[in-house]
Amino acid sequence: MTKNKVEHLYIHIPFCQEICTYCDFYRTKTKDPNIINSYVKKIVSEIKEDNNQYKTIYIEGGTPNFLNDNLLDELLSPLKNKLQNNYEFTIEANPEFITSSQIETLLKNNVNRISMGVQTTNNNILKLLRRTHNIENVIEAINLLHKHNMKNISCDFIYNLPLLKNSDLEETFNFIEKYKINHISFYSLEIKEGSILNKQKYQINVDKEEHHLEQIKAYFNKLNYYRYEISNWALEPAYYSKHNIAYWDLKDWKAIGISGFGLENNIYYKNNGTILDWKKEESEWDDNELFENIFIMGLRKTNGIDLSVERNKKAYLYLKNKINHNLVIIENNYIRAKNIDLLNDILIDII
């Protein structure tokens, strides 16, 4: 069997200063320098053994920029020569850790996109979420990034948070407009197993969730942002997340680091184990799993699934009788949701 070319790389850095109440990712508050140093060295060892050249690299956490400048440089330096032309190299960053020297380390190693976890502009809610930054830290970080000519900045926000009011959302969009944030991910709060909110038995307010989403869509329309995926908006297509589009198009990607998951040649895997000793646990997708995942991921995008791609066409023909065609549109060789906010109504018949 011909192997697919792997052009997308995910790296997980699990270290955090504090555990956020909504988070269920693999993370640790360890300050032990031996563990942190050993983890970075193990990641670097895997990077050096890898011969791929990447269109996109995404470093996530945890809090990747929790690493000091020397460790960050050690992590990034073997990656800077593994990039194709017109690459996208993203690192997640908490605003309170961003410094001029850190930005210089990122730029030196060809990082060209920052994904910043803001979550809300309300400082009281940030404390409730156990975030260790405030909105003043965010503004300072953005100004520093702009000063260093780092313009490709994405900010993450969450709606339907505890105590979040309509006026807070208005304040958030005033911030987005003022600082011309060119990419926004706006997620609805999910109570996930393993999170502190789940242990506290926090209940989602569905009415509030729907109201917030309508408010968010209205604001983005007013500011002329493109909604290109169910939770993602950009000022223009040039700022779409190429790495995430690769996920949604179910392109192959490699994962390095504890709890990272990847897909290579229909082999889906997760790196399970301990912080310094993980191994791939693999499961090979059959046609049914592959085709279902093409639709689960692809219909998240507002332009939908490209049926001129042979694999996608096979998926459509395989699932055709399960699809509620009243909820989708097929035109120009694409199938997409009529209303992306009703995506679950489409998928429930497919999976």
From TrEMBL:
InterPro entries per UniProt: Coproporphyrinogen-III_oxidase, Elp3/MiaA/NifB-like_rSAM, HemW-like, rSAM, rSAM_horseshoe, rSAM_sf
Which GO biological-process labels does this protein carry? porphyrin-containing compound biosynthetic process
Record GO terms (molecular function): 4 iron, 4 sulfur cluster binding; coproporphyrinogen oxidase activity
Q: Kindly give the PROSITE patterns that the UniProt entry links to this protein.
A: RADICAL_SAM (PS51918)
Its Gene Ontology cellular component terms are: cytoplasm
Radical SAM core domain residues are 1-229
Q: Which family does it belong to?
A: Belongs to the anaerobic coproporphyrinogen-III oxidase family. HemW subfamily.
Protein name in the entry: Heme chaperone HemW
Q: What organism is the protein native to?
A: Malacoplasma penetrans (strain HF-2)
